[in-house]
Fold each of these.
Amino acid sequence: MENFDVCSVPLSGANLIEASAGTGKTYNITMLFLRMIVELKFSVNEILVVTFTVPATMELRKEIRDTIARALEFLTSVLSEKENTTDIDENIKKIILSAKDDFTVVQRLRSALKTFDEASIYTIHSFCQQVLSERAFESKELFLTEIVTDDLIIERLIKDFIRKEIYTLPESLATMVMKYFDLSKLFSLYIRRPLSSELIIKPKEELPAQEEFLQMLSSFDKAFQEAKAAWQMERIDIENFIRCRENFKGNTKIAKRPDYYLEILNQFMENGFIFIYNENEFSESLQRLTLEGISKDILKGKGIPDSITFFNFMSKVHLCYEKISDFVKKYAIALRYELFTFIDTQWDKLKKDKGKKRYNDLIIDLAESLKDELKADTLIAKISTRYKAALIDEFQDTDDLQYEIFHKVFIKTGSIIFLIGDPKQAIYKFRGADIFSYINASKNVSKRYTLNYNYRSTPELVRSINLLFSIKENPFILDEIKFNAVEPCAKDAKQLVSENKTQPAIDIFLPDLPGNNSKGIQEELVIKKILCDIQSLTSDRFYFSTGERIKASDIAILVRTHHQATKIKKVLSRYNIPSVMRGHESIFKTEEAGEVLILLSAIAFPSRISLVKKALATKLMAKNSLELFAIHRKTNEGENFISEFTERLYFYRDLWLHRGFMTMFMMLLDKENITVRILAREEGTSVFSNIMHIAEILNKVSFEDRYSPDELILWFEDAVANELSGEEFNKRIDLDGDAVNIITMHASKGLEYPIVFCPYLSDIGKLSEDFFVYHDPEACNKPVMFIGDDDGEIKPMAERERLAEDLRLMYVALTRAKSQCRIYIINHKEFYSSALAYILASDCSKGNFNFDQIINTLGHLQKESGGDIKFSYLREAGINISSTAQAIPLENLQCKIFTGSIKQNWSIQSYSSMASRFSDEKTEPYTKNFLDIQDKVFPSGAKAGLCIHEIFEKLDFHQRDDVTLTETIRPLLRKYGFDDKWVDYLKNMFIATTDCPLPEANIRLSSIDKSHRISELEFNFPLNGFSFSEFRKIFHNAPSYSGMIYNILSDNDEAFAGLMKGFIDLLFMVGDRYYIIDWKSNLLEFYTQDNIESEMSLHNYYLQYHIYTLALHRYLKWRMGSIYSYDKNFGGVFYIFVRGISQNGNGIFYDLPDSSVINNMDKLFTGEF
């Protein structure tokens, strides 16, 4: 591979850049971007930049923008011949000076900065979504799709499958099959499987007939009855034989625990097969009590008495059991295969019917579109025309489908593409990343480069890591991943110094404990050593070569799991050492999530005394032991606690129902004094941060899905039970300032710290016994999802890939350090299979591994490195921990003075808030006397309106199946507190409404496909300041119903600005036209056109639909661009009064506002009128 020079590399064709840790990957991306603007004259939106996380896109945006700004500053100084005092990067100088004679460069750089918000810097998912949404609009498909950000739907599908396919089996078969259906493992395997069109699922078993199982069960029962008869006849002899230790070898289980095996036999003889399928360990115990099993344990010269025939019969029982066990295993494997097919099928149905997609569906759908023979060429041409070059960051984290997309769009078409990544840092297999996709891609590029200079670490640390990974010929196992030593080039590298002596770059510690100590004992010693090291490093004894003191925040402890992080944090807290856990732990895994769930459950169901008592017992409520005892014993004091608290719970529930979740929650924290109590606790800031994060999530879910309190509680229970994860659900950093960083190795990728502690490199990644993914070398390394019973050939291949990823994870961990890395080795029984053992041991196979190999290698490294790598033994006596950590001085803090200005007339507007400014002259409402028909007409009011709205939102308009209609409507009636007697009434209303013709649209609602309509479309758009009198003038002499607005608007000069928000009940599309529907449940005596128009005027609905029309007009103009025309693409507005629908047109109001009115509203709201 060539060394990469960012200033001279040709900007053409397909290029692969392998960037080792610390070699400036992000920097080189920014320089390539700059060169494309300067040399190729590309605009910022013509250069596609793709990375794999949202934070990474934000970082790239900032770095690229800053680079362009510095380049413009330098070029301006060159052209003006003024001295530039700013320290300008040498490569920026080269790029700019090479093009200084091109006078258009200044304009291009200025334009790039001005339009930088349009830069095409995406995650892979947002890139796919952007392409798909444009394609969807062109093909007139539904262009708004709901992206499902959690995986609870997948879990529900798995549960549906289990209910359908397993719970319907005979009880004994169902129970045994469920042992092979670990829900969490199947769920994890499904969502983390590689995205590949060539994914193979193995093995594919045919589902055996249940009759075969019943026959085996019958054979088992016959053998069991024979054994039982022998047991009853020979029991005393059997018990005496088993209890006599002289009959058995001393080290056998039966000799050590005779009574246990006799109890097993007794239980088995009493319960038969039921005992087998309820006991996990029975198979092994059963085998030990067969003739073959017990014969192995008998001492030489001893034998089974002739009076005992029981063990012969037990051999027959065990044989029958083994046949049943094999059958069940085969049946379970076949069901696993069917499960994945079932999930895929059901998910595709949800995508089609409900418009739901998971993030990975965006990649899948785009890859599928690029395979469409009729449309692929057009789509590829459009993408490659729009993007003249592509820079793909973190390419080692790609998968087959992502690579297929980039290959077809850029590599195959000969476009400019740079793939930037480091295969040594491919550590996200659990997220679906596939290192073999990277390897295959590397073979299809014309030019490969490497970055050879490390800008992060000290020269001593760079050389030490080079030496460490050069011990083995294949340090990363896979032949295609080579280790290329890099050269140190860090300008500000700081060595660690103590007592004027430079400290080793890599310091390795080996526990030296007497006897064969457990992993737990060694781990405790390591954590004590870490504590001691932190106290020592942050004392006066240690400092950097620049003279700076070492702060706690200079130190990072890298762990494998959140459990390990929590354990270390607790120890540090005990010794008053501030620390912060950084990573991807789910907020729903915290103690606070469980506590908030209990309290909210009591608010949602205040009549349930058990929930009320649980809520009072939470830390949030902070009742003392005497108060809790009074509640438990139901004393007068306790009853008063419950009564008063229950009354408050009803108040909070009412507030939740009428004013929303967050209003209720903030009131709860205030009135119950929760905030004050929490912040007074030692860890209060962290706890309160978690509680508010949970509240924000619940508020968002409640708002977006319109959940009632009980529905939100169900969602919350699922989230806590499954520790729902994802970017928005990850626990936030719980402390800022000077604190030791505790972070998982996976989360540390891309970060750097002066000093890094690695206490868990001795650990290994665990493979499931029968669920894992590997790549089959005999099938061109295609990914295989293995869901069956291993015969001993497959697991070694998966273990090899596991070890390879552990090695890459170790490389990531070690290369986070800038000055020093400390490694703590724990010698446990599986250490031989760890990445660290692979590197340090000459032979780490199970039978040949010896820890002396590790010591010999470490001695060699210490000598070869000249002391930059050092190892020493860790002894309990050498660890001295002070009782308290050194106090951290606080700065003088003072309140910041607010010097800005607050716009008093800025507010969030809606049609209703604007309508409140209308004049008092309104049309008189009709006198309604419905007392005589109140039992025949569905009740009126806000709850009734919400119920009717939700019915039309949830049902397919073509749905006529009576069972489906009833099953949808009945729960909604109950949700809003109405009697089931209204089911038929609302069914008839729904059918009449959806069957009624809409002449202006030449359609009935029942004929509109779900993909051509959107319910509850939210909008927000800015208002740039105008007076009410200006707004009124727009409607003066306006045609049709628009003129009605002028007559009822007040004429005043009140000015206001802000944000207009609202919800459109329904948007649907017919041909090229879009129509708005607003459902109205108003109760009128007669639904004639005159009455409806009076109702429209009374409630200011004319203004409402003009605002809705403007919102849609703006959106379509933005989405469709120059091809959009109001007169051509907007069809009008329907207000459908659902209680009065008839086939002759009663109950329907229609209008198409004049385009001049809508255009004038648009100009006024944007400040151009």
Note: The chain has a mean pLDDT of 85.
Amino acid sequence: MNQQDNNNQSQDLNKVLLEISSGNQISPSHASLNKDTVNFQESKDQIEILDYNQYIYNDSEQTPAGEKLDKQFQQAIIQRKSQAFRSKSLYQTILCKLQQKLDVNWEEKQQQRQLKILEDNTQYKNNQIKTSRYNIVTFLPLNMFQQFSKISNIYFLLMGMLQLIPQISNTYQVPTVYLPLAFVIIVAALKDICEDLKRHKQDNLENQQKCQKVNYQRMNLEEISSEKLYAGNIVKIKQNQPIPADLVIILTSDQKGGCFVETKNLDGETNLKPKYIQKQIQQKIYQNQEQVFQKKILINYEGPNPLLYKFSGNLELIRDDQKIQQCISLDEKNLLLRGCILRNTKWIYGVVIYTGHETKIMLNSYTPDVKYSRVENQLIHLILIVWFFQIFLCALASLGNFVFYQTSKYQLNYLSISSNSYENNIFLNLTINFGNWMILLLNFVPISLLISLEMVRFFQAMLISGEKLMKSSNGFYPTVQSSNLNEDLGQIQCIFSDKTGTLTCNIMNFKYLYLNGVSYGSSQDSSKNVKNENRIIENVNFEDSCFFDILENPQNEKQKDVFFALKHLSLCHSVICSETQLDESNDPLKKQIEYQASSPDDLALVNFAKFSGFEYTGIDNQDIISIKKHQERYFDLNFDKNNNQKNEQILNYKLLHLFEFTSERKRMSVIIQDLQTNQIILLSKGADSIILKRLNQKIYTQTEKGKTQIEQLENQLQQYAITGLRTLVLASKQLTQSEYEKWDIKYQQASVSLYNREEKLKNLMDKMEQDLELVAATAIEDKLQDQVEDTIYVLKKAGILFWVLTGDKKETAINIGRSTKVIDQSDVILEIDISEEQMLSDKLNEHLQRIETNKNQNNNKNKYQQKQFCLVITGESLSVIICNQKLEDLLISVGSQCRSVIACRVSPKQKKDIVTLYKNSKQGKGKRTLAIGDGANDVNMITEAHVGVGIKGLEGMQAARSSDYAIGEFKLLKRLLLYHGRECYRRNSITILYNFYKNVMSLTPMLFLGFNSGFSASNIYDIYVFQFYNASFTAFPIIFYAASDQNLSSKILVKSPHLYQTGIENIFMNKKEFFIWFFQGFYHSCIIYFVSMYSLDCSFDKNGRKPDIVFIGQTIFLLTIIIANMKVTIHTYTNYVFGYIIQILSFVSYLCFAIFLNFTFESYDLYNIFSRIIVYPYFYFSIIICISATIFFDFSFFTYKDFLYYMKISDSFRERADEIAQEFKNDENSNYSVLFQENPNVYQVRQTLHQEFTENDLKNQK
């Protein structure tokens, strides 16, 4: 083993360790390092590593370099585990314990397993699964622990305890705060119960599913619940039944030994996947159902792991514990996974190998952390600020009371305070008075806010889900699954998007065929691929008369090469055939072959071969592939198919081996034998970067003809990529019989090996796929989604960075970027396609310097005239960057200063890593991210981002189910963010600030009263009536406002992306705004208190009595209700009649309450108070003065801020006037012509933005 190999192994090993320690699935490129016999055992001081030699490629000898690598491995593992242990918080640790979660990685428990079939194997767990969080015993402690991990709940819990202390309580030791706290906790608990009951119900449905198990004692099939299955049981699964556990197939109803499964629940793909029985099992062990009850077998296989596409094992027939059959290898093709559904197959028998939480689908289940919006995180900080301010005020007030008592105690003899009373003890005096003031001002932290906010978000979610304009063309309405993130939709600063199926339709159409220096096909859409004799050839958009002439003219010298290329397309693929009867008759001539494929590219290629006269008709149980060569000219609408049946010819080929496509190999190959000539041929297709390296170098690098062919091919592929097409290169290799047989012996030996099997097979496949000869190249188009260009353009204009993460090649990704407006025509593209660490660092520094230089040179230009950049980086470069902190910082520094970033050739894991990297970076800290995708490979990215949006598309519903918001089309993202997101952020921010404001306004008068009462913590309000202040008298106007108010019409907001900057710049919710609202509450309370106190206290009623403190207190309370509700009206833009009705009803509810107490309880303090108030002249004087001094000031201040806001907008329009006028000058329907004048002023801007501001948007609601 040379030094370079050791270095490569060390790098690979470090990557594996990183994946293991993070608990992620090992990427396919490292899957070969995951061997079967690696076990980890933890002791008190160290981690002992067993059988580590399986991690070394050359396991036959242990070199000094290998020993050094061994030590590095042990040290790295210990370091990783130490870091993971330290990073786990106490809260997470307790939560895991309460939920009975094991804190281990699957690698640590992995070891080889052995099963004897038809014997009990109860040493392994049964098939029961549990996804619920609670049970009857654990619900209370676990839920209470979660509830009181919130700082607001902790605050009110402590305040309630203070209310229980006799010397402190002002509620007769009744913890009144526990009533609203209990309501909040009960609502949250009920919500958790409902969600967990759904999980319990789903678990029960899953566990109670019936399946047929082989009873080897009674020699029959017994029906049992799936939860009672154990490893080693044999089960029978019928068509359309779900697979209850991970099974190895041993018998099927199909004579070919195959079956089809739907994996939509597993990987999100809707296409059926083929699974097969190993031929030796079918031919030598289980030929019929009776033998399933009789023959014993022994299965050796790897321990549980989450790798969906990896499985290694072998099977042996035994009798009396003696092996009587040679080992038969097992791999992932023989494995049916839990969560799949059996399709198009009558029945199968399978051996259970993994059960319950050891199945691959359960090991892949990922529960993301609870997401909190940026506003919610700010709210926590505001609560802490208010809490500390409250403590400060209470400390000052208690100190004031102590000073007052010490200076005035000789004048307070009428209070009969004894010398032993707490007033004479400094510590007790300060402590008790501090507690009294804390109780008095406890609503400084508004508990009503938590309830109001949840109700508001719920109504907002209903409006989003029911809006007609959010309905997609395929009939899907949006789904809101995390309404607590509504306001985050208005603050998105970076979007991470998948490409295929998200920006494009994921409907592939064959477009071009390149052969012998000629590109066949047309850039125009073809209409001749639609119908011919009521037949449909899908996925083909091809038109070329020259190509059609070649097909029809046997004398054409090009026909031989064209036919071979078409045979290649019809033979090298993973398409599944199924026959469909066109009518009720059994006429074989009225059967139609349908294709299904896991890859839409394969579907397009096979359909093009059929379109051109080479129709793939399937493969039989002897692995014989049939190709029907015909002259059915699907490209000719006038061709009579019935007169052409005599020209049909069946071509047969024997499939010897199939090398499947993987993200690591980036190619697929088949070895076939032409039964017409007995010639053995290897056919390969894949990415040009892979296939071209494997071409015969003697032909293509050492001859002028070969060099010319490669040069022409690369130029043509470049042209295809420029137009956004997906390209594949086809190649072949002729094999001699002896050459194939020697290779096949090695391959069979490697396939039954339990150790290092994947690496051995990979090396043998790689050896075979060398010295290839070029055949052709193909180009497939993937159409863009509706309005995707306009959507991306508008989102970028809103100030949102756009990252596209795709698996396509670089050139294709760049062109798709241009066509989707991810890359503007004026953008400068910065490319990174380097895998060497130092060169990568130099390149990133070079790009960073270039961006900063451009920024310094264009400081005098406005931001719309400055040169913009787009970064394009490959997955190969990312794999190096993500392991290096310095390179990570450089990448984000460059990417955050580019308007867009395209990452190509990236894996699903890299997608998630990129989002995590951006979120945790210095530049991305505090910025809200959104990830959008439509497939199962996007789920981790979606759950990692602050906001995840799933598209209900062709690749299943897994992305939509795992997302926070699900929409039907990408274009709806524009409305979701620019209208719903912006408005939810604005309204929810004001709702939070308003709740703080109204509580400050209602509580500060009691602080002012302290100046008149020696800071004795006297309550100016009735303690019971005051409880309804937040619950009823001021609760509903703000809720209606937050659910329905519109600052501007949705049409204007969607077409004016710069208005979205209010959320990005955090205009409505920041500390400055908080202190403004806080000061307004303080100012209003000053006006209310001093006007009421000194106008009422200095006057007399008609009976000569001065108003007492109860009278004044109720006057102040009434004024706070009036002003608090009018404050909502000031901030309301949309005038709804129902809104005013709610305002009136809120005030009337207080009047009814006051009138009821006024006449009911004679002994109550409020008896006859309301009657005295309404006849007191100075009461009306107080109302007029207070409303004038507060509401008029607020309205003026609000109008001034509104003016400044529109002034800022007009400045923005003035900067962009030339650019926008050019873009919209031909738009006769534009509503913004006024805004694009040379010098629009603030009044013009405001008038134009409001000219369409009517209630028409209500028509868009269901």
Note: The CA atoms of residues 410 and 417 lie 10 Å apart.
Amino acid sequence: MNYPTPPTHSQSLSDKIEQLRSHCQINILRSWVCWRGDLEITDVMQSNLLHWQPIQLNDKQQVVWNQGKHILWLGQKFTVPESLYDYPLSGLCARLSLTWWADGVEVYLNGNLLSTGDLFDCSPRLLLSQEVKSKDEFFIVLRLVSPEHCDGALMHSQMIFESGIVDDIDPGLIANELAIAQTRGKNLSSTEWNRLVTEIEELMNFSCGIKTQADWKSLLEKIRQTYLGIDQLTSIKNNKLFLLGHAHLDLAWLWPVQETWKAAQNTFESVLKLQTEFSELIFCHTTPALYAWMEEHQSGLFTQIQTQVKSGKWEVLGGFWVEPDLNLISGESIVRQLLYGQLYFLEKFGKISPIVWVPDTFGFCGTLPGFLTQAGIEIFVTQKLRWNDTSEFEYDLFWWQSPDGSQILSYMSPPIGETIDPVKMTDYLSTWQGKTGLANALWLPGVGDHGGGPTRDMLELARKWKNSPIFPETEFSTAENYWQYLKSSVAILPEKLPVWQDELYLQFHRGCYTTHADQKRWNRQCENLLYQAELFSTLAAAVYGLPYPKAEIQTAWKKVLFHQFHDILPGSSITQVYQDALPEWEQVQQLGSTILDRALRAIACNINLPEPPQPDSIPVIIFNSLNWERSEVVKIKPPHPQHWLIHDLDGNQLPHQITRDGLLFIPTIPSIGYQIYWLSPGDANGDVDENKCGQEFYLENEYLLVRVNAQTGDLESVFDKIQFREVLQGPGNQLQVFADKGQYWDAWNIDPDYQSKPLPPAKLQSIEWLEKGVIEHRLRVVRQIGKSEFTQDYVLQTNCPILKIENSVNWQEDQVLVKTSFLLNIHSDIATYEIPCGVIHRPTNPHTPSQQAKWEVPALKWADLTADTNTGNYGVSLLNDCKYGYDIKGNQMRLTLLRSPHWPDPQADRGEHHFNYALYPHTGGWQAAETVRRASDFNIPLNVLLNPETKKSPSPVFKNNSFLTLAADNLIITAFKVSENHPQSFILRFYECHGESANLPTLNLKSEFFTLGDPLDLLERNIHPTVNPIAPWKISTFQVLTQ
């Protein structure tokens, strides 16, 4: 039976705990005097604090000063008393315990710099003297710099006197033991509580008049004996806390990348030094990218780390190249994070990491287990869901299952950035044991975010508390050893662990799907570019023997992976981080474009051309990088202005349209292949569209009739001519604008109440036709939002059921959110969203708190709402080329376009933006409508080579110029590359995209050269043969061999 702690007993015990602490701790917060403005420390010492002003505490009993990098000096002189309430202080250690919220802090003792700190190293216990004497004086001065975005604060200032002997006791230690007893003894009976509290009160009454250290130690030992006889309290010794030194180190955030390298160096040097004095210390760190920098720039330090790894004192963890965002990056990016990260660990440290360690990433896509289990990962670790703002995540240890059926043991770790706090540690242990039934827990001491790691004080405290009879056993251990404990314990638990079959959605930081739209656009474009560059380079090497640019491709990929770090890509870093990122993205674009162009031209050089339809015709070779046939509009820019015609391979003239900046036509290109067309001079009176545009603002093709409201620029009607039904129930592409302020984490968080704060709607400035021809209708709408201008082109093309909306925006708003809204004529309880190599279904009418918390959700290239109507399934997909934040409620589908936070980058998103999205009404579900393919088409255009160098040969011209075809329509190729370990071997990767099984594909890769080889995992290691058919949502990798 459980007996709750009687309130009177609990309060009485709390009073005694505080009484004990008063014998060795002094709150000195009110004793500071201040000087506002900067000084030199020599001036401070010479002033002797004369003319400094007394501080004023706010309602929270804190010292507060203004935001904006303002400097506040605090000073005081502290004289050590002979005793505190008769407890003699002579011979004890003196420590200064501080907690601040400041961008930078310097702590001086008697004019000498004692310590520094910042927003993250913000709660130190600083040693002032190893052995004090009565009347010792400490002249303490703090220089504090407020954060740019919020007020600074000093929340805690305390002098602490404690024994410096490991196995000695003092009032503070006994007070903490009593606090542990108070937590652990919540289930004691009233009788037991009454006896315990009464005995302690009686003993405390004897403290009056005790003067000597010996008498005090005797009293404290007697107090300790009162609870040592209670098995429920001392049984904690049967539990164990595994300690693992840790230092979370953001590669960039409130500091630039260059500062990270120095912070990492300082952290690693500090750990290595402490390990020489504290042989028990084991430290862990993630991020192969960081180790690679150390290897290149600090080789001596890197060699020391390798030595400690071999000795078991340093653990490399993580698996990913960096700790990336895992909502916004593509499936292939996740693969490369794992591939390059694990192979680096294997090469430099002799093993891959079985643990993926992502404590600070802002949520996790539901398909992640399917990636991890194919990359040697056996346990997934985070703690970020502890940040949820709506509902508590219910599990600390569970199986996480992805849609393909893969399961991974998942562990919600203790918080990071913690110290050795015995009360907090035992409370965590009790909670952990109550949730999981496991007796042993992990604790991660170490300053983090900006590095730091374990401190001397933490390690000394760990040694001291190891001797406490009411504190669990402690032992430094590796995460892998703790994982082995978890694995063996799970096997014998009386109840099976729960299975989680959903995303791990962070109920926080929803603005990160949108903030710094430039980073999202660069990332999407570079992911797409590297896919194409790698694909065609592999084909050029495999089919035509060209050198494969492995080093260049790996360099480009690693730059992309680095900038997918969870504080860069989400848009939550300072201005300089993005100023530094821009040339890195540009280098990737330049390098990727060069590699792609080189590969395409190399392939073109081996193409046999037929006779041209005219002597002066120019060959046009169009390449398709996707694994299905495509027939869509391309634009050619002829070499000089004149009238031109377009012919196919057989010389047949094709419909085309002359525009202001080129020629449009619709080629048909086979799967991962090319086709040849001819650009020929034509007669001025030839088959050229005259682009006759009237004043009626409607666009039409064989699929859709679209009307635009001439007063607002919104879509007034989208009519499906095939199904003879209206798609909209209200305005479409309505720009909705909201105030988005009041959030401390400004770049991270959208105001949860933003919908109640609408701003004036967009004002139509102009509407005009740009094109209205046989290939394309293009209507331009210009609207004003505050100081910002939205230029939107509605584009409807022949043979295409998709309405495209191309955007050029000059965004100049402050703390404003803008969404595009489509009010649809269909209703469904479920919406579908693309996530890496899969989809997720989310409710449109949420009921539970956890569902309601998903009022802004991430998706990759598309989201879809499909309903069961009286004429069968009908749906609408909303595609995008670089946006990630969606919300679909009822029949309203919205895509978040832009934000404009102030902190930490006041320049975030201000300026020019270019992005596109598209409305795709369709019959049937998104699978039947091939939304996955249409979204890929929208993101990866066909590649056009105009008049490239080609082979002059009498050899026959092939009309089926497909290098690679997969027979199953529901398989999407994500990579075709050269093997990392075997240059003569090739790697093909694809995933099943419809949630349906697929027979093992028939591979057509110029089969006179290649055959399909063995199945591989994501690290390109052989695995047991895959059972046919391929499972729904499965990511599959195969070796492709030369014959």
Note: The radius of gyration is 33 Å.
